[in-house]
């Protein structure tokens, strides 16, 4: 239901607009989220919001909301995996200013979820970490090479063409790539 409730609503501190369903998902837990930074920063720890798929949207929105409305409590960063588009360009710009160099938005090759809901109504914040078809993490998706790289995924499995978009979305796929890149 959260994914399907897509009309926009005002963003945090009145900046831009957000996907209504994702904002509702955050609203249901925000009082607990708001208490987290003070609770966990007892000995200088950092607090990061993270989430996969649908969980990535409220993680990003929690970071935006805390930065724009509760700056003293802002998270130290946000890290998402396969996050859907969550907000309009106005809120994305405000978010990018607040979390510059403190956000990692991982997209695994042909993962279908980061392509939804459609642009131009919704967009992503910056900080893309694109995982190519060879499992390399890149700071951006190259324009020319990116097209060829994305085409190689759907054609890789002749018994299940186009299944790459779903297979690339599983969190296990993300974890394998991250472990591989630790070496």
Automatic annotation (TrEMBL):
Name of the protein: Lipase family protein
All copies of domain Fungal lipase-type, residue ranges: 13-119
PANTHER family for this protein: ALPHA/BETA-HYDROLASES SUPERFAMILY PROTEIN, FUNGAL LIPASE-LIKE DOMAIN-CONTAINING PROTEIN
Record key words, sorted: Hydrolase
Lineage: Bacteria, Bacillati, Actinomycetota, Actinomycetes, Kitasatosporales
GO MF entries: hydrolase activity
Entry EC no(s): 3.1.1.-
Tagged with keyword Hydrolase: yes
């Amino acid at each position: 239901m959260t994914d399907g409730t897509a009309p926009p609503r005002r963003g945090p501190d009145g900046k831009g607009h957000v996907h209504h369903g994702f904002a509702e998902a955050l609203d249901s837990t925000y009082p607990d989220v708001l208490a987290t930074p003070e609770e966990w920063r007892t000995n200088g720890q950092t607090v990061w919001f993270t989430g996969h798929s649908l969980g990535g949207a409220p993680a990003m929105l929690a970071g935006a909301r805390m930065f724009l409305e509760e700056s003293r409590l802002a998270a130290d960063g946000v890290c998402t995996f396969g996050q859907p588009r969550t907000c309009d360009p106005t809120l994305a710009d405000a978010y990018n200013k607040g979390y510059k160099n403190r956000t990692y938005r991982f997209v695994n090759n042909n993962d279908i979820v980061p392509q939804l809901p459609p642009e131009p109504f919704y967009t992503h914040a910056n900080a893309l970490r694109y995982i190519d078809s060879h499992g390399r993490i890149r700071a951006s998706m190259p324009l020319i090479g990116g097209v060829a790289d994305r085409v190689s995924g759907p054609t890789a499995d002749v018994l299940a063409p186009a299944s790459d978009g779903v297979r690339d979305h599983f969190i296990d796929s993300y974890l394998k790539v991250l472990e591989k890149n630790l070496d």
